Structure formats: structure tokens, C-alpha cells
Amino acid sequence: MASHRRPKQPSRARVTVLTTAAAAAVVLSANAANAAPSEKPNKDEVKTKVDKLYQEAEQATEKLDGAKEKQQKLQKEISALQDNVARGQEALNELRDGLGSMASAQYRTGGIDPSVALFLSSDPDDFLDKASAMDQLSAQQVESLKKVQEKQRSLAQQRAEASAKLKDLADTRAELARKKKEVQGKLGSAQKLLNSLTAQEKAALATKEQERATRASERVDLGNSKGSGRAGAAFAAAQSVIGAPYVYTHAGPSSFDCSGLTSWAYAQAGVNIPRTSEAQASYGTRIYSQSDLQVGDLVIFYGDQHHVGLYAGNGQVLHAPHTGAVVRYESIANMPFQFGVRI
What we know:
Blueprint: H1 12-39, H2 43-108, H3 114-120, H4 124-129, H5 139-195, H6 199-218, H7 229-239, H8 258-268, H9 277-280, E1 285-287, E2 298-301, E3 307-313, E4 316-319, E5 328-331, E6 337-342
Antiparallel strand pairs: 1-6, 2-3, 2-6, 3-4, 4-5
Helix pairs in contact: 2-5, 7-8
């Protein structure tokens, strides 16, 4: 006979747990649904975040420019050292050949000096340390051995210096790769944010940026300020590239980053200044009062000195702002002024 049992009822505790979990799930779903629309930042929020990323990218760009400049300098120094070592080795070989000729002559006359033979088969430092052998050398041989010793020491020092610079070069190249990756990461994040905007929002931002560039470049009032000398010539050169795009690590002639513009402009005036904004900040005479600035002076911005432009007069600076912008005029008041530099 079949057994008919009443189904087991869930315990009160189990019912309570299930009810609570279900209620929490409903609340979380409701909160998620309510939060979803606000997860997508609006156009102004995106612009603020993008501007911050561009500034961080520019900071990294200046470090990247510095690493590139150091790499170029090291490569030149290493090349010069290697040339010196090659020439020094030739001179050393000639000195040794001369000593060998003297030894050969002594051998032919049956009077080869034991000390010369010792030199020809061992280190001259070790040889010269043996004072007991010195009286067996002629004055000419002593002088030749001293020259050999000095040349060997010089070559050893130059080889050690070249080796150290080669290691430094390898470290610099690694730093270049890291900084380049950092810059690209910042720019990639900025582009991702921009891509989150609708086509209409993108167009609005682009129009706003274009209007700002046009307004800054064509309608700025520079007052009666005029540049003179090489500073004036550098400023005129920068004016000639107004509208050129900002491209990180570029120093002209058709695209620039901030210090690339200033270094290129001064180069057109026949003045070579450092490549990075930080180095440019320490290159000339500092001007701490904006009222004392003259057209063509460098203007340094931000506490870490990662941005630089050229003073244009009437409180304006001519600079390469950031990725997505072009060389243009802008009010000094728009950025944290640190000081000017007169080259």
C-alpha cells in the first residue's frame, strides 16, 4: 500500500533567509537600473577627464623628450670615445713596434736586454715596478716604456668610460620605452573617453576647440609689445607656425610639443636651448614678475615645470597646448604661472 506523506514544509529560518535574499536582489537590481544612466559621463565630464589625461601625457612627454635627448648625447659621446680608443690603440701599437725594433737591433748585435725581453712578454706596469731592472734599460727605452704605460692607462680609462656609457645608454633606451608606453596609455585612455561620446557630442567638442583656436590665434590683442633681438626673432618664428598641430616628441617644422616649439623657435634665431621644459627653465635668467616679461621670453607653467611657451605680450603666451590642439595664443592666467626665463 503506497505511503502518502505530507510534503515537508521549509523551516521558518529558511523562509526568512530566502525572503531576505530575494528582497536584497530586488533592491540591488533597482539600484543598478537607477545607476546605469549616470555611469556614462556627459560631454563636460569627458572634456574635464580628457584634459587631465592630456596634461598627464604632456608630463610624460617631457620626460620622454629628456630621455631621447640623453640618448642622442650618449651616442655621440660613445662614438667619440670609441674613435679615441681606436686612435689610441694605433699609437700604442706604434710605440710597441718601436720597442720591438730596438729589441731586434740589440738581438742582432748579441746584446738583447733581458729587461726588454721581459717587457715584450709581460705587462709594462709589472716590468717598471721591478726597479732592479731599470739600470739595464737605456734612457730611450725607459722613455718609450713610460709612454706605453701612459697610453695603456689612458686606453683602459677610456674603455671603462665607454662601457659605463653603453650601460647608461641601455638604461636610457629602457626608460624611453617605458615613457613612450606611458604617453600612449594616457592618450589611449583619452581617446577611449572621447569614443564614448555620441557623434553629436564629439562634433560639439571639436567645434568648441576649433573656435577657441581661431579666437586665440586671430583675434588676440598683443598690445604694443614688440620683440627685439634673438628673442624677437624666436617669437616671430613661432608666429609663423600658428595652427600647427601638437604632436608629442615633435620639434618642428610642421608639428610640435610645447618644448619642441620653443627650442625650434630659438634655433631659427640662431640660439640652441635645451630640449625639455624643465631644462629650459634653468637655462637663462628667471623673471618672477609677469609685468617684467618681454616678448620672446620663455614662460614656465606648473610646479613640476612640465609646460613652456613664449611670451607674446599683453598677458598672452604663444604655445603648443596639448594633443588635439594647435599652436596658438592663450592667456597666461589659464595656467599656473611659475616664472619667465630670459635667454
